[in-house]
Every structure is written in structure tokens, then in C-alpha cells.
Amino acid sequence: MVTAAERVSSHKWGMAVDVDRCTGCQACVMACQAENNIPLSTEDIYRQKRTFAWIRIERYWYGEFPNVKARFIPIMCQHCENAPCEPVCPVFATYHNTEGMNVQVYNRCVGTRYCGNGCPYNVRFFNYWEPTWPTSLRNQLNPDVTIRSRGIMEKCSFCVQRIRRVSRETTRDGRELQDGDIETACTEACPTNALVFGDYNDDKSRVSIMRNDDRKYTHLDALNTDPNVVYLAQVDATGGAAGGHE
Amino acid sequence: MQQRRILDEVAINHELLRGNLATPKWWLPTVLGLLVVVLFGFTLMGIMFNKGLGVTGLNRPVYWGLFITTFVFWVGISHAGIMISAILRLTQAEWRRPVTRAAELLTVFSLLTALFFPLIHAGRPWRIFYWITPFDFARGIFPNARSPLVWDPFAIGTYLTGSTLFLYVALLPDLGVLRDRTTGWKHSFYTVASLGWRGNPRQWRLQTVAGILLSALMLPIFVSVHSIVSWDFAVTPSVEGWHSTVFAPYFVVGAVHSGVSAVVTMMAVMRWLWGWDNYIRPEHFDALARLLIVVACAWLGFTFAELIFGVYSLEAPERALREMQMFQWPWNLLFIIFFLTAFAIPVPLWFFKRVRNNIAMMFWTSILVNIGMWLERFLIIVPGLSRKQPFVFTWDSYQVSPLEWGLLLWSFAWVMMLMLLFSKFFPLIPLFETKESQVFTTDVKIGRVNMPAVIRELD
Question: Which of B416, B397, B408 is nearest to B120 (CA)?
């Protein structure tokens, strides 16, 4: 647990997702897969209903035929300030760090999967099997990211390894961290810039500006999870803004 | 008051120690048969440890399934012990006497079984000490006191300790009897186990006081254990069908329903196996069935209350979930079976005196109740997870794997085997309680009528 004094940190990382820009191309999903050594969701695993995708594109159909529209919503760990997954973990494997992130400590996890039940967004993934990769992908694994063994939970980390690396580099070079210095794998891969990563404590950062947009909404507000991932609703030329789930 | 045979103390000793001083013919084959199932179950656990939880049918939205259902089920069964021995003792219900020990035993063994499930259900079971022990093991991190999963070991640990002590205190006079009637290593064993019991007035006094004290001390546990188990679900705001404030009393009453039914099942089996017709009489079944009618009706009230609390807010997801639980295939089938077996069939039957006094009928109806109560827990746990929140993209169903069914079977074989092993070394019906009730129910001649004079325990 973090005391109030410790909570005051210079950074509060967050992400803004402009649903209006998302084309559902799944580039973020693949980038995340490659960056974070996520076990492969093979056909076998799919049939077992145990696929992994730290970020997933949910596709919903709206409207009546012939005016049917596909809507895409990228869903990743929402890094809730008031996360339902955190208090239920018996071993503090998941907790809130001083930079506003909901972090998962793999070594502490005993695999009760209670956090997975607690998460309303279903973005926590359990390693039912020891992860394996084909030989062709051996050298593709990212050395900066731990490979999770079987029996533990994992989820989107906001590419914490990139945050740490850039922070180290800026400290070394003695310069201020600028907005845009840190890109997570998904924001970097997004061709339409629908995904934006940044610091909410920096008033001029893109995420801070997007967070104050009129189109801003967060998912499952009724649960009072206070997510650090905000969404900008889709603008519908025929019927105004339509965001989230009805 | 019904007619009963007056039993002399020699006959009581002879009949109740039948299983201890001699081995019944069926005992060894039965225990060996159960041992095979138990070993099979441990093999399945070994496979689970070796390969990982992938061998179960659990998947992404449904992270908890049959194992947690079975855990709640056995914790529920364990409520029989306190209900029968503590509450009925404090309320001085005389008919409890022949079943107190078996009920306490069922408590201890069903808790020992229940404990297995959350532990083997962990992804890395070799690390569970970091979770269940309130100690940091030099890691600098104690378990998270906010998690209901940390409350569970405390609740169950206290319950297990309390009921074991209770069982042992009630066993002492009988161990003394066994010590005096055995030779060789058995004699030595009972000598140590009976803690120098000689049956003098001071020892009887201490034994009675300890029993009453332990009963009173265990009453809060009666409320707490299943409340805490229910909070595993109730504190999770994300899962519709779990997040309900009525869960704690609802689960406790449900636990008593299933626990007392399990005691009925066990009494029928004991009567049949050891031929204790003079001790476990139809009037005992009659009394338990009357108790069960009350408990079952209270439980039904809570079931409806939970449903009404759920749909009262008219929130679409909650309503959709309830609709699925009750009206959508395959849940509707389970729901119908659950309602018929847990209430609709047994309870109306228990209203008939002929059914209450018919041991075969009581046996089958009590089994029905426990089928229904298992399904109730399953219907609470799984549908809520498979339809968690309106992110329809992640909704999915759950298929129980053969391995999980195997471990459910294991749990029953394990409890039965432990009971039978216990029956070989300790009397299942308390001798001293039976003798005491004989004394308390001596007939007194008043005029020309013989009236049963019932003297109660000392205050």
C-alpha cells in the first residue's frame, strides 16, 4: 500500500483513446504481443477460451440494416485509481504504484485469479499453461520483459519497461521528460493516432488536453473505478456522439 | 414421548463399541475401495500441479468454477457440527445426543476437504504459504488484510481448531472406556489419548463446563465462517450476481440447510452400517426433519430476497443475468433441478409424519437437498462470471473438465474414508451422552401412569 505522501509523484501516466479515429486495424494488438512477450493465442488456446491480448479491439455493430456501422473500442488495462482488482489480491501481487499505474508483480502472484474476477474489463489474463514459442519466434522475445511462468496473472503494464528506460535516459542526459518521449508499443503502432500515452500531471500533454475534451468518457463509470484510460466518444455524422456501451 | 427400549450400560458399551473392539466384515473392503478413489484424486491433483491449471475447464471470464463451488459446498456441510452440537446443546434439545459426535466429525472432515480446494486451485500452489500464513517469510510483505481470501484461512482455521477441540473434549470419557477394554498398543494409545480420564466428579464437571464453553465460543464462528466465505463473492462489485449485501446471512442459512441434511444422510448410513437401531431412532429423524423445514423455509426466503435485491434496481445487466440463470439453456435446467431438489421436493414431503419417520425417505430427501445446494453455489458462481459486465466481447461459457469431476468425486470419497477410519478407532455415537440421556429420561410412576422424567443439564 502507498501512503498519501508517497502518492505525490511527478508523473501520473495515462492513456487517451480516440474511438473516432480507431479503424480496428489491430496493429496495436500485434505491437503489444511483440513488445511484451505475450503467449501466442493459437487455435488450440482460442478453443480453450484462454486467449491472451493485453490490448484487444472490441467490435460492435450499431444501427439497423442497411445503415449498419462497425464500432471499434480498444480495451486494455484501465489502470483504475480505485481498482477492484487491487484489494482482493491476498499477496499484494497487484497494487497501485506512485505513478498512477496498476502494476502486477509476477513474483508475488500465487494465482488465485481473484483479481481476474474482480476486474470488470476482463483485461487480466491467467497463464493456464507454461508459455511456449515456436523456434522461429525465439529471437523475437523482448529481453526487457519478463516471461511469465504458468500459474500467474498478467496484464497491460503501460509498457513500464519503456517508461523506465526513457526516465533513465533523461536523467542521464540531465533533461526534462517531454510529452511524447515515452511511447508505449500500442501508441507507437497506431496508424491513426487513436491511442495517445502521456502524463496527466503535465497540463500541456496531449492526454491532459484530451482528458478535458467534451467527448471524454470512461468505461463502466457506475462501478466508480476511476480509470486512467479515458476514451473520446465516436462522432456520428448522423446522430451526434455515440460512445461506450448502451 | 415415544416408547423406547431401556438399555443397560453393558449393552450400550457392547453395541456402540461394536466397530472399535471388533472389525465389521464390510469395513476393510469399503475403506480400500474408497482409498482407491482417494489415491486417484491425489493423482489428479498431481497432474494439475505438473501440467498447470490448463487441465481444468476454467477459462478467461470464468476464472472460478467447480473447485470453488465445491469449496463453498463443503464449508456449508461443516455447519452441521455447530448447529447440532453447539446450538442444540445450548438450547437443551435432548434428541441431539446420538448425533453430536458424528455431526462434529462431519464438521472437521468436511473442513479438511474444503481446505484443499482453494489451495489446489491456486496457480502456484507451492507458494500458498505467502497467502494463508500471516507472516512475511523475510519478504517484507504480509498478506493483504483487505482481501477476503486472507479472511478465509482465519475463519476456517478458527472453526477447525474450535471443532477439533470440541470433538476431543466430548471424546474423553469414551476414550477412557476404550482404554479399559483394550490391550496391547491400542491400550497404550487410548491411555495417552484419554489424558488420564478416570471419571471422577471433578473431571466430569470440567468436561461439562468445557463443552458448554466451547459451544458458546463457537456460536460467533457459526455466523462468521460462511459469512466470510460469502464475502469472497459479495465484495466483488464487478460481478453481477455476486455483489449482494444479503449474501452473508443467505449463505449461513443455506449452509445450515445443507449441513443438517448431510447429518440426516450420515445418520441413516450409520444406522444401516452398524445396526444402531436402538440409538438412532425414527424420532431423531423426525426432529431433524422439523428443524429442516424451518431452516429450508428461511433459506427460501433469503433466496427470494437475494433475487429481489438483484432485480429491484432494474439494471439491465443484472436483469439479463437473472434471466439467464433462470430461463436460458443450460442454466434453466440446472435452476429447475436446483429448485426441485433443494426445496420443492423434500420440504413438502417432510410435512408428512410418515415421511419424517421413514428412514429411507429421509435418506433420499436429504441427498436431494445437497444436490440442490451444490447446484445453488454453482449457479451463483459461474453465470455471474461468464456474463461479467456489458463487455459482450469477453462473455464465454464454462465446460467442467473430467478432471474437475474426478476431484469432486475425490472429495466425497475422502470424507467417507476419513469417517470410516475414525469409526475404527473411536465410537461414532457418544457413549456417555447416550447413558446420560438414559438417566435423564427414566420413567417416573405418577399414580397409575408412567411419565418420562426429563432432567436437564446443570446451568
Answer: B408
Range of the domain at B419: 9-452
Taking an 8 Å cut-off on Cβ atoms, the answer to whether B123 and A122 are in contact is: no
Q: In chain A, what residues touch B60 (CB-CB under 8 Å)?
A: 49-51, 116, 122, 125-126
Rounded to 5 degrees, what are φ and ψ at B458? -65, 150
Report the CATH number of the A4-239 domain.
Answer: 3.30.70.20
- Determine, yes or no, domain membership for B1: no
Mean pLDDT estimate for chain A: 89
A104 phi and psi angles, rounded to 5 deg? -115, 120
Q: What is the average pLDDT score of chain B?
A: 88
Q: Which of B56, B150, B392 sits opposite A90 (nearest CB)?
A: B150
Q: What are phi and psi of B183, to 5 degrees?
A: -130, 170
Q: How confident is the model at residue B280 (pLDDT cuts 50, 70, 90)?
A: confident
Is there a contact between B53 and A128 if contact means CB atoms under 8 Å apart?
yes
**A117–B238: do the CB atoms touch at under 8 Å?**
yes
pLDDT of residue B444: 65
In a domain, B4, yes or no: no
CATH of the domain at B147: 1.20.1630.10
Element (H, E) at A13: strand A13-18
As a whole number of angstroms, the distance between CA B404 and CA A92 comes to 28
- Looking at the structure of chain B, the number of domains it has is 1
Residues of A in contact with B389 (CB under 8 A): 120-122, 220
